[in-house]
Amino acid sequence: MCFGLRSFSYLPKSSHCLKTNLSFFPRLLHSHTFSWKPAKHDLFVVRSTKSNDDLESSRPLTQFSPSLWGDHFFSVSLDSAEFDELEREIKTTKPLVRDMLMSSHSSDKEKIRFIHLLVSMGISYHFDKDIQEILNHSFTKLEDIIDKENDLETISIMFEVFRLYGHKMSYDAFDRFRGKDGRFKESLATDVRGMLQLFQFAHLGTPSEDIMDEAMSFARNHLESWIGGNYWWQENIYLNYYEQEGGHNEILLKFAKLNFNFCQFHYIQELKTLTKWWKDLDLVSKLPYIRDRLVECHFASLGTYFEPQYSLGRIILAKIMMIVVVVDDTYDAYATLPEVTALTEC
């Protein structure tokens, strides 16, 4: 699939130019009703316009740094045999993970915590139907599940999981962690895992839920005081931390790593496809003022949907974003005011 600008005209055609009172004057020369007889004219003032040289001197001509990656992903070789092996191992391991999820020996609370683990590892999409079934059942008896539960991490996890899957769990469950003044208890600050989870779930609130803003501010203040501004949890993937935890599940960890490599294979293939499309357009040489930010656009598309089955959607979205970048840079980094006006009217 290939779409985008094949060429670009620096100067708009006459039919696209900004119309003024004077732009109709040439048409009068060809009119049969035009009279050469002396006539009385009213005095009027004509606004002067800039010459082409003046316009060129006012052109922004912003210089952007080149792409950090260049054509790197276009030259990356992918082993199809390795990809096939990943698929086979995923198909073999997936039923084992599903058995853990659907185990009849696990309580509703344990299943919800397991679902949260799947979400954190980026593998929950493999079990969407099973997860929906579990949560639909658990939500009907939510009050019993959270009754007498005073662990901040557990309540925060349950809130996050239910909200992620469309169940509006009430934030009233957090009243047990607030003092008489309505604020979160300072004693919670010693619960590191609970504070991390509190900060995470606070992003899932609605505009009318002020408690979410309070929770985010409370958690952020304490977390920042611990790490001294070094956001270490952003510098490594969740899998690394899970692997370091004592008593981690080896089968689950193996499946998560297989899935990570499987997704990575898809992303590299998408970047190869996008890089070829971008090279074929050759806009970097045709429009030297634009930013070459194709990889960044693809990375942004991953925030919309990261699952492998949405590969085509990511490619399309990255192309659209890159075209938007071209138009944006034309406005902000190259075009003069008359050109911008004409382009806007087109």
From TrEMBL:
Keywords: Lyase, Magnesium, Metal-binding
UniProt entry tagged with the keyword Lyase: yes
Every Terpene synthase N-terminal domain range: 68-225
Terpene synthase metal-binding domain ranges (all copies): 279-346
Cofactor: Mn(2+)
Keyword Cell wall biogenesis/degradation: no
InterPro entries listed in its UniProt record: Isoprenoid_synthase_dom_sf, Terpene_synth_N, Terpene_synth_N_sf, Terpene_synthase-like, Terpene_synthase_metal-bd, Terpenoid_cyclase/PrenylTrfase
Pfam families to which the protein is assigned, alphabetical: Terpene_synth (PF01397), Terpene_synth_C (PF03936)
Any GO molecular function: terpene synthase activity
Gene3D superfamilies, sorted: Farnesyl Diphosphate Synthase, Terpene synthase, N-terminal domain
GO biological process: terpenoid biosynthetic process
Family of the protein in this entry: Belongs to the terpene synthase family. Tpsa subfamily.
PANTHER family: ALPHA-HUMULENE_(-)-(E)-BETA-CARYOPHYLLENE SYNTHASE, OS04G0344100 PROTEIN-RELATED
Protein name: Terpene synthase N-terminal domain-containing protein
